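dumping these here so i dont lose them again. two proteins, back to back, each one seq then structure tokens. dont judge the mess
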Amino acid sequence: MFGLWRTFSSVLFYLTLAVGLGGLLGNGLVLWHLGFHIRKGPFSVYVLHLAAADFLFLGCQVGFSVVQAALGSRDSLYFAVTFVGFSVGLWLLAAFSAERCLSHIFPTCYQRHRPRHTSGIVCGLIWALTLPAVLLPAHACGLLRTSASPLTCLRYHAASVTWLLSLVCVAGVAGLVLFVWVGCCSQRPRPRFFGIALGSVLLLLFCGLPLVFYWSLRPFLNFLLPVFLPLATLLACVHGSAKPLIHFMAGRQPGKRQPLWAVLQRSLGEEAQLEAGGLALPMGLL
């Protein structure tokens, strides 16, 4: 039985490492092309920061996995640090899904009343607020190589779990509303970004949610289901690595070979700015 468990753990470890390396490559390409080859639209800013958050999470996960394999021990500090990148991505996905939903349901009102730099400000606030939202509970609960304070840990952890589950609900509800609106209520053609928004929410629910559950119930799951963390980590790496593939599938045209920046630009939808002319179609067409 012990040998079977070691084999299973090794398989999960190498699968996680392979998925993480592939995700680093995919998100690195997205960062390169969105950062240097495509002019920023309101939603490409979210995609750029999402790729950065996933790159951070996957990079920390791969790096700590290699260190763990070399040292032969698991440190709770690794999980706390990698969870920062995952949490930033979760918050960004919730904001991205909510804005996508509003822009399609109320296009005229959204275009008229949305401040110009909303995406950049929201992304900056998310990065700034996620660090204390994750590291304060981790510090109070002894995950950062510090002594745990039970009462403080309970208070911070309850607030952190409530915050994370709220973000999952926002992303899930926004995706559901968009799905119902496009499928049943809207008379306009299905937008190209519809597949990206729906695919991202489904990835979150099936691949990202287990890691949220582990953060919420870590002591119990460590005791009752030791295999839960490796499985949740693998699924979280799939969650972070599959988004560039979703963008590629949404933006590609069968039978045509195009540069990656053009595929990404098309996948972002009508608001993506044209590289050659520097123009953007009106957001009211979303």
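---- next one ----
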Amino acid sequence: MRNSTTRFSNRVDNYVKYRPHYPEAVLTFLENDLGLAKEMIIADIGSGTGISAELFLEQGYTVLGIEPNREMRERSVALLKTFPNFTAIDGAAEATTLPSSNVDVIIAGQAFHWFDPEKTRAEFDRIVKPGGYVVLMWNERLVASAFEKAYEQFIIAHGNQYQQVDHRNIDTPSIERFFAPQQVLLKEFPNQQVFDLAGLEGRLLSSSYMPSKSEAGYQSMISDLQILFDRFQKDDRVTIHYTTKAYTARL
């Protein structure tokens, strides 16, 4: 299986343009229900191009972005350069390079399924301040509408290792085991993206398990994508719905 720290290196442009962001309701929940406050320092583990960090930076939070992939980390620096309270750090979930008891909150957006759970839990315990908490977030693509069901089958047919690396392999019991003996709270929020054909192609190519333009299978995939889009489009658009899941626990 391709190294998880390099598999997105040739996907950065599409990742930036076409990956879903997180609804502001997530931040409202963290502030109102868990006491997240501006003076707290956040470590965004597996921060990628900065999609999850941006949600907090826009509201004035200080975010340390821990990202092992050079191309994604450098893009986050470029995209978030207007936020002086963002720092990108070459590190990983299992070895962040942060000092002990350094951060108030740890977040991981669309990244936890790439981590080694045992080593990551030890590192989280080390870097978070006493009483700090962890937020694991995913935009989970739904398979509910006729289009979404057909799109899922399309990905299975054309993808490489999709079912092995799908984040949905990490279920609630897996997360509860990671945090044990601490109690885990799950909060869900609706989210969606609306795409024309070019946008749907970009969303598809942002995923590491789909053939890139230089790989075998790309042309047949794009031909089938056109057929799929033509079948389900309304006013030249299709909609992908998500449930944004936020698992939270204090350490």
